[in-house]
Specification:
Blueprint (H helix, E strand, L loop, with lengths): L8 H33 L3 H5 L3 E3 L5 E3 L2 H33 L6 H29 L13 H29 L2
Antiparallel strand pairs: 1-2
Helix pairs in contact: 1-3, 3-4, 4-5
Length: about 180
């Protein structure tokens, strides 16, 4: 089976990325609606106490208020939006792979942007963990250094440079007679 061009593995992966891309849009929209509902319901906290209870490790129980729920939903929505951006850039890369042009100059920029978004998502995770540690009734979040995430960021930046070199070599080859 071929890896590039129409009817190849890359075109199959492009279809999968298309499905994931639109599913992520639905997820972001649903989370936005839920966050808006949580904010609106926070104006009547007694209504929420009947539905949502969180119990801490010490046995204390408190009802989550709408603002806390909305903040969590917004944070998850931002995370999904970051994944949406990554999948969107990957879709564009796979369009060039399906066309048989893997070393398209725009792929370098796309890969670099994916690396930046991956790093931003990891920093956002640290920020979210720090913010949740400040909330009452929630056990302190651990600040584990995720080596896999940072390794992924580095791999994407290295791949961007490989694609940059491939694009440079291709443009030099096009200049030769």
């Amino acid at each position: 089976m071929r890896t590039l061009g129409p009817g190849s593995v890359s075109s199959f992966l492009k279809i999968i990325l298309d499905v994931v891309y639109y599913a992520l849009w639905v997820g972001v929209a649903v989370l936005g609606a839920l966050a808006l509902m949580a904010v609106l319901l926070s104006f009547n906290p007694e209504f929420l106490k009947g539905f949502i209870h969180i119990t801490g490790e010490d046995g204390s129980e408190f009802a989550a208020n709408g603002a806390t729920m909305a903040a969590g939903l917004v944070a998850f929505g931002l995370y999904l939006a970051g994944v949406l951006v990554i999948v969107g850039r990957l879709r564009r890369i796979f369009v060039t792979l399906t066309a048989g042009d893997p070393f398209h100059p725009d792929n370098v920029r796309r890969l670099r942007f994916i690396g930046i978004v991956l790093a931003a998502l990891e920093f956002g995770r640290y920020l979210f963990r720090g913010a949740t540690a400040l909330l009452p009734g929630i056990d302190g979040a651990s600040y584990s250094f995720n080596l896999t995430s940072w390794f992924s960021v580095l791999v994407v930046f290295v791949l961007a440079e490989v694609f940059r070199e491939g694009a440079r070599l291709r443009s030099e080859a096009e200049l030769t007679i």
